[in-house]
C-alpha cells in the first residue's frame, strides 16, 4: 500500500544540489526516514497479529484438549453406567449387543469412538469392524482398579482422520462393584480445532485496523518529516550535517546566526577569529559579547545589509546580512563576514588594471578606423588623452607619412603628426612641423634603443630640456610634470615616437604606466604601418593609372573638353577616358571601365587605351573599333586562363570591360556613338535642357561575337556631351536609376556653363563621402566649323583640270588670308588630285578646311591606297607623295562608305614654320616638273 505525502504549506525549500525531489514520494521508500518508520510499524503489526493468532491457537488447542478429556470421560462413563452394559459384557456374544449401542452413543455424544472391552483389553466394539477383537491401545491398568484413566494415545484409524486422540478409560462394574469390563471413549483433537476458527477474522480485522492506524500515523509523521528533512534519508541527513559542520568551520568566511530576541545561535570558527569571540558565546545576547560598536549595531538591527564594510579592530570586514525566514514571522538573521583588509589595497590596483584593459580594448576599435596615416596617428593621440595622459603628441618619419619605407637615417628629423589633449595649456610644436631631436633627448634614445623611456620628473630631465630650453621652461611653468615616450615599431622597423605627458594636476607616471604605453604603442604602430603600406600601394596604383590617362588636352578645334578623375578610397580601378584628334578636324571621345580594382585593372586599362589609339589611327568606324576591342579583351582573357598569371596579381583575368566610343564631326555637327555595356551619355542642349541621346545598348566587351549598334546624334554648337563611368551614378546605397536622376538634376540648366564648371557641379552633387569605385567624368562642348572656312568642290576625272584646281585653291587661300601657304598647298593638291584622277575612280572631290591648321582632303571612289617609297635617282617618277609628306605636317588615308580620302595637315604661318624644311626639296624641284603625275605604286 502506498500513501503519498502532500506538499508543505510552509515556504518552499529546495533539496540540496545533486538530489532531485519527487513531487510524490512512496511511504515504502526505505531511503526516507518516514518510509523506514512505516516499514517498522508494519513489521510490528504483523508480529503482533502472528503472536495473537499463535496464542489463540495454543489456548484453543489447550481448551480443546481439556474439553475433549471431559467429553471423553462423560461419554465413557455414560456408556459404562448404561443399563445392560455390564450384562452384555458377560453375554456370550458381547459384540452383537454392544456394537450397535456403542455406535449410537458415539453419534449421539459427538465423540470419535466408543470402545467396550473385557478386562484383558480385547475390543468388543469399534467404528471399524475389522478392529474388533484386537488389543486396545492405551493404559487400562488403573481402570481395572476402579479409577478413570484419561490419556492421549494413538490407535487404529478413526472416521475423523488422523490426529491426536484424547481417550478416557473407565471401568464397568456389576452390582457387587466388581470390574467386569472397560469402556473407552475418545475424541480427535483435530476436530476440536474448529472451535477457534471463528475467532480468526476478529484477530485479522484487529490487525488490519492497527495497520491502518499505523499508515495514517505514518502519513502524518511522513509529512512532518518531509518538511523537516526535505525528503532526505537518515544517512543523507547524517552526511548533510557532517558536510554542513565541516564547511561551516572550514570556510574562510565568518558566519553568525542570531535569534529574533538578539541571542547568538551560531558562530563558526572564522567568525570567532575575526571578532575575537570566546568558545561559550552560544545562546548569549549579542550586546553582551563585547563586539565593536559598528558590528554590534548591525547585528542588533533588523535591516538587511549588502557588502557593507565595517571596521573591527585593525581589520576591515565586508558584511552581508539577511533574515533567516524572509517570508515568515519567526525573526532571526544570518550574517556573513569577510576580511577585506588586503583586498582593499589590491582592489585599487585591480581597478587601475581593469581601466587600462578597457582602454586597450577601446583603443583596438578606435585606432586604425581608416587607412590614413595622419588620421591613425590622431586617433592614437585622442584615445590616450582621454584616460591615460593629459597631453599626447605623435611624431612620425616623413617617409611614413608619404607611404615610403622608413629608414634609420630619418630618425633625427620627425614631423609632428598628431596632438591630443589640451594643446593650449602647454606650448608644443605645431602640427606639420619638422622636429630635429638631439641624441640625448628621450625621443632619440627610445628610437635608438627600441624601448620606452620614463621621465618621472621633467625638471630633472636634462636631455629633454636641452632640446629646446626656452620651450621646456615655458612648459614646466605651465605645469608639465612627467613624460613617457615609446617607439612606434612595426615589423621591427621604427616609424616614429609617441609622447605621453602629465601635468601637475595628475599623478606622475610610474613603471606600470610605461608598460601600458608600450602596449598601446604596439597596437597603434601596426595600424599606422598598415596605413603607410596602403598609402604606398594606393599611391603606386594611382600613379600608374594617372600615367596611363591623358595628361593634357590635345590640340583640336572640334570640342572644348574638361574632365575629372577620382580614384576609389580602397584602390584604383580600371576607369579611363580619352580625347583623340582624327583627320578632317574630327575628334574621338572614349570612356571605358575595366571590371575589377587594383594594379591589374589599371594595367589592363592601359592596354585597352593603347589599343583604342591604334584603332583610331586606322580611322575605323565606331562599331568596328568596339568590335576590335571586344576581340582584344577575349584574347586577354584567354591568355589569363591559359597561363599562371592569375596567381601573381589581383583578380583572375579581365572578365570584361565596358566602353563608349564616339566620333564628333565639327563640319556636319554630328556625333556617331556606340556603347558596349557602358552607361548612356547625357546631352545638355544650349538652352540647358538635359536628355539622353538614345544610343543603343550593346553587350560588354569580352563576351565575343555580339554586334555593336551605332547612333548618329546631331549636336548643335554649344551642346555639352557628358560621358561618365558607373562610379558616378551607382552606389551601394542606391541603384543606377536614382543616380541618373541626380545626374540630370545636377546638369539641369548647365547650357551656359563652361565644361570645367559643369564637371565641378556634377562632382559636388554626386561625389559620395566614401567612394568604393573610381569616378571618371568627361564633358565636351561642341564647336562647329563655319561654312566660310570650308571649301569643297568636285573635280572632273580629267588631268587637264589640275591647273583649275590650283587656281581655285589659290583663290580660296587668298580669301582666308593664307597666301603664304599657297605654294605648298597647290603642290599638295596637284599631286593628290593627279593621283586620284589617274589611278582612282570617280567621283573625285576636294575639300579645304581652315582651322588651327589647313586641312586638304582629296576623295575618290577607289579603295586602293597609295604608299610612300623612296625613288632612285634614275627614276622618272615616284616622288610626288614624297613631296606631299615633306610639305605637310601629317598626311594619311581613311576609308569612307564610297571610297577613300587622302588628307594632309599643314601648319599655318602663326604656328611652327615649315620654311627651313623646304631647302632639302629644292634639288628635287629643279629636276622634276610639278605637273607630272605620280604613280601610286612607285
Question: How would you describe this structure to a colleague?
Answer:
- One of its GO terms (molecular function) is ATP binding.
- Residues 1-24 are annotated as: Disordered.
- This is Histidine kinase.
- The longest helix is centred in the first third of the chain and has 48 residues, at 33-80.
- This protein has 938 residues and is of the alpha+beta class.
- The protein starts with 32 loop residues before the first helix and ends in an 11-residue tail after the last helix.
- It folds into five domains: 80-190, PAS domain (Beta-Lactamase), CATH 3.30.450.20; 250-345, Beta-Lactamase (2-Layer Sandwich); 353-539, Beta-Lactamase, CATH 3.30.450.40; 553-637 and 655-782, PPM-type phosphatase domain (Phosphatase 2c, domain 1, 4-Layer Sandwich); 788-924, Heat Shock Protein 90 (2-Layer Sandwich), CATH 3.30.565.10.
- It is elongated, with a radius of gyration of 66 Å.
- The chain has a six-stranded antiparallel beta sheet, sandwiched between helices.
- Helix 22 (802-815) runs antiparallel to helix 23 (822-839).
- A hairpin with a 2-residue loop joins strand 7 (305-312) and strand 8 (315-323).
- The protein has 25 helices and 31 strands.
